[in-house]
Amino acid sequence: MDIYLPIAEMSVNALVIILLGGGVGFLSGMFGVGGGFLTTPLLIFYGIPPAVAVASSATQITGASVSGALAYWRRGQVDVKMGGVLVAGGVMGAGVGQIIFRALQKLGQIDVAINVIYVVFLGVIGGLMLKEALTTLIALKRDGDRAPARLRRHVPWIAALPGKMRFYKSGLYISPLAPLLLGALVGVLTVIMGVGGGFIMVPAMIYLLGMSASAVVGTSLFQIIFVTGAVTLLHATSSKSVDIVLALLLLAGGVAGAQFGVRAAQKLRPEKLRLALALIVLAVAVRLLIGLTLQPAALFTLYGPQ
Over 80: is that where the pLDDT of 196 sits? Predict the structure, then answer.
């Protein structure tokens, strides 16, 4: 029988966890990302087992995304039709991801796999975010504080897919196969990494699907709610790695933080904030890489009966 690790035994201060959840919720509301790509590594840094950090992070992301999505819903910035297609793909991907997660667990390699995947993904995503942020800032300085225009277009193979549908709020006429496949990819990542997938979903919706910027963040949060909810259920029933106390503490801060993030997104210029986020993501990737390569003080840890 699996026993969840009590939060007290993890030596993690409850207030710190709540504040961490609040910071991640803030990012969720501002950028339309679930925030798990930062929550999970930070929990690992505190000494929480990666498998528990992944599952509990997904639980917290669900609540934080509900808070942010409701705020965008009230502004009429959620494309429910597009969100439904993304959710369908996400649920299918979550099923595949759970099979992979359980296989790695049985091999005893889940902790190493999670860390390696995070180093690769955060390094790539952080590098791309940093490049875009610096390019935008340079363009603003050159053009007299006027943001360069972005062309809304989807890639040729997406335009060639059959069975096109109209997504009015997103301003698109494309095949639902493209967002379905995108949702499936995010579903797999949500299970294995404990992420909402927004850090991949948002750029993909803009640059691959060509969605209207006004509907991107709200629609991303909408799909995160349902996909992470399904992932939480899978983790709780299959891998049994959800620490409910940890998840609730993260959720307490995340729900409030998301509301502040939504408000800030309406008032602040995003260029410098994206630069700061890119630097944070790269810093987390470097810290995880160091943890993977340096020899720990104790090579083996013995756990007594719970």
Answer: no
